[in-house]
């Protein structure tokens, strides 16, 4: 069973009737072999399903319409084995509402130098057949991933899987439901936005609930279920004896179990895969969830603090894209700086950082939470795993959404942090904090982000292109003057592309 189960991508191969039945029969056999080879690859996380070779406009339209209506199909890989006149593709591509990738490959890797003749040349015409198809994508202004190389190589298969994972994230976003427990943090601008526009662009829905709705569920959680979950905590994390033997601290731990059970039941019963809460809006529940929220993120739910529904949805999408890969994904916040020989950012949040990014086995600690409510709350403490990472922020600029991506290098803190009772990650943004911080601010990036060590910049760009939204990258090559010009040019492009 592949990582994504029954979900699949379709390989659709283009040709034309001009070649005759014998050639078309061989094209079909070759295409079947490519699909089977990709499906068999350990590098691909989903099955690739062969579709009959399409040879005319009606067949192309038919397969695109079937893809639209098949819930297991998350996208198409399109390949022109021979020449396939691209005007045939216009109606199908106009109707297609699933993402597609253009695979520029050919069936054989090497040329049979001693035997090659015109029959061989006519059969293996991807070199110019794919260029013809590429034109119609450009003419129709389609943003799409193009992968070039022989289909059986590891590099090409890895690039295909990178796109497949993005298609899975896009599929997840369609109809994703985000539950908001309470409203946004008061007077905060960047976590606001138009939920209607977000649903149009990204596909997900945002629903608001009063805290009393959650409190009803929390009050019904049984002591037996709480006790069983506490035993899981003891098995998965380091839980100090002094916490277990102190009645006050142990009750704080049990309270997190109660909230975790209640929130998961509420989310599952309503079909929600992401949620937000707000430390300014806690009436009816027993404090801001700490360990409970961390645990739900660890299970794959998206989360955004202070009512940040955009980050909550994107956290869920990135977790789907990263399924089965090494490296974690978490809701994150740029919290404080370490200016020195190499300027660094200490990322954290008040309570809610996902333990999938942890370097070591997380430790449970009960500590005082002082913002919004003064209460002792149990949470997981850990340092983030060193290595490359990215931060992704989505902001609503009024006339469009912008995705900002900053490439990072996470490092181990040079000293212990015995008095900091939160999960955290210390990173050095590329190219450096002086440039990255300025670029992030020029772009309007939020203080919240999706932090991930499991997905790439290119995958996030692919997702933005599927959504038709702006994406800007801050990396080792970023220069502020050029970056500001890019923002200006993007403003013109997106203003004109959406109509005036």
UniProtKB/TrEMBL annotation:
Reaction(s) catalysed by this chain's protein: beta-L-arabinopyranose = L-ribulose
Binding site for Mn(2+): 306, 333, 349, 448
Domain (L-arabinose isomerase central): residue spans on this chain: 177-324
Record domain L-arabinose isomerase N-terminal: where: 8-173
Coiled coil: none
Keyword Isomerase carried by entry: yes
Cited InterPro entries: Ara_Isoase_C, AraA_central, AraA_N, AraA_N_sf, Fuc/Ara_isomerase_C, Fucose_isomerase_N/cen_sf, Lara_isomerase
Entry keywords, A to Z: Arabinose catabolism, Carbohydrate metabolism, Isomerase, Manganese, Metal-binding
Cofactor note: Binds 1 Mn(2+) ion per subunit.
Name under which the protein is recorded: L-arabinose isomerase
